[in-house]
# Entry
Amino acid sequence: MKLKSLLFVALLFLISYSYAQSPHKTKNVVVILIDGYRWQELFHGADFDLLNDKKYNPDDSLQRFKKFWSDNLDGRRKKLMPFTWNVIAKHGQLYGNRDLGNNVNVMNPYWFSYPGRAEILSGFVDTAINSNSYPGNPNTNVLEFINNQKGYEEKVVTFACWRATGRCLHKDKSSMLINVPWENIQGNNLSETEILANEMQHFIPQVWGDDERLDANVYALAKAYILARHPKVTYIDFGDTDEYAHAGKYEYYLNDIFNLDAMIEKLWNLMQQDKFYKNNTTFFIVPDHGRGVGPQWTDHGSGTPHSNETWFMAMGPDTKPIGEMKTKEQIFQTQYAKTIANLLGFDYNVSGKKVGEEIRNISNN
Ligand SMILES: [Zn+2]
# Structure
């Protein structure tokens, strides 16, 4: 063989070798769901008309303007979600700013919570799932799929604000840990933080009734479990945003998203200080549906225009730091499941179902 062709073969070998030797860096994923949080507040910050309307701000404290208002759009959204705009927008990717033509939508025809979660977790739409009181979801989901992969067995866990999330993941038939109201973290060797997180959920008023617990309790349980047991995939399911919006309390809705942004920051920083998670963990953050606009901001569902408009964001070692996506495109939330599996190097498919395509910018694939 001539030297030239030898060099050529060597080059080909090197290219294919380096391709095969560049697997994803992501070994762990945290999926965070924020129920019914609008793209409008994420990208615009507080809405002046809603913030100014006494009907939606029963406390009527001027504090809310100080905390959330700025005439400058960028300043305003940073006031509401400082970690998102100072860190995720620098090191991750944010989708769904419709002002820029970057559209994210619900694909199911219902535009509310159980069907939204089912679509996200399964990666396809099942129109039979048409109610929040729907019993056990008969379909599989990406968490179950990952939990069945080598090295991920019993390493995929859920902490949810809502009992229906358990049904959506078919908790009764699942071997995964799916912690729903008002379950404690179980075990013989619980850490002090786990014990405290367990206790606190029972000492705090049941603000939303028996079916749903507060975001702060879900956060405490998830954080305590992560610290003590190092799951590889953690699904954290939050819901106060949706409840405060339904109640027509705008300042409370904003306060909750401000707090969730801080919880995400604390969880991210904690995990980056932990050898197990440092530089190999991706956060993937989504809502389950949008909400209406103007006086319809309190509602969602197929009768409420615009409540199928959503957003999502991600940050991690495989996600290029592009920030706020400014390209015209259309993404559906059916695409998240395959993207999450893809981050871990797995190809998620369900026979007979049309699973949404992975979002290549996220998984760098
Ligand atoms: Zn919802």
Notes: The longest helix spans residues 250-272. The pocket of zinc ion is lined by residues 35-36, 112-113, 116, 242, 288-289 (CB under 6 Å). The chain has 15 helices and eleven strands. The longest strand covers residues 28-34.
